[in-house]
Design goal:
The structure is a single chain. The protein is built from 4 helices and no strands. α2 packs across α4 and α3 crosses α4. The chain folds into 2 domains: 33 residues; 72 residues, Cytochrome Bc1 Complex, Chain D, domain 2 (Orthogonal Bundle), CATH 1.10.760.10. It is globular. With 117 residues, the protein is an all-alpha fold. The chain is 61% helix and 0% strand.
Length: 117
């Protein structure tokens, strides 16, 4: 089989370009998913507070208890989301099967709106 170097090089360049565009799209999707779409929305904050009171208050109280004071969290939006969804190292249970992604973001929006506690 006789291959021409130009064809190989053209295919390699096209493959690298395609790979780069796929990676860029994945990065953009991950970044978009890590931004809370409910920050500052009154209805979402109210729903987030209801969820917090029914699911989170037992451990986190108003300013920490058995769990840390999440109103003073230094976690990024994505870290907060991932910890609630998948659980944390310090014994935080995973809530991903009990709360939808949207509900987790609403809890985050509520917590971020009360950073003065």
């Amino acid at each position: 089989m006789n291959r021409r170097p130009g064809n190989f090089l053209s295919g390699l360049v096209a493959g690298i370009a395609l790979f780069g565009s796929v990676c860029a799209s994945a990065d953009e999707s991950a970044t978009a998913a890590s931004r809370n779409p409910h920050l500052g929305q009154k209805e979402a904050l109210d729903e987030g507070e209801k969820i917090y009171r029914s699911r989170c208050f037992g451990c986190h109280f108003r300013a920490g208890g058995r769990g840390p004071n999440i109103f003073r969290t230094k976690l990024s939006e994505q870290q907060f989301f991932d910890t609630v969804k998948n659980g944390g190292r310090s014994g935080m249970p995973a809530w991903g099967s009990a709360l939808s992604d949207e509900e987790i973001w609403k809890v985050h929006a509520f917590v971020m709106s009360r950073d003065h506690l």
